[in-house]
Amino acid sequence: MPINIKVLGPGCNNCHLVEEHAREAVAQLGLEAEIEHVTDRAEYPKYGLLFTPGLVIEGKLVAGGRIPSVADISGWLASAAAVN
Hints:
Elements: E1 3-8, H1 13-29, E2 33-38, H2 44-47, E3 54-57, E4 60-64, H3 70-83
Parallel strand pairs: 1-2
Antiparallel strand pairs: 1-3, 3-4
Helix pairs in contact: 1-3
């Protein structure tokens, strides 16, 4: 079952960089994932996001207001994969 990843943000360069890092982490781990970009600001509070960009893995906000490294994202994905 693919891991669900959401990038929350208006579509700025930082949002695209978060998505790029997420895709790189997924590829490095050899995981199957669905990556969705959520630009609707009304959705952000559902995840507790205060500042964009945000990264949500399996429904849990793991980063907000910053660009997490590929290594950080890999760790979160490995934990999510272990639960699945």
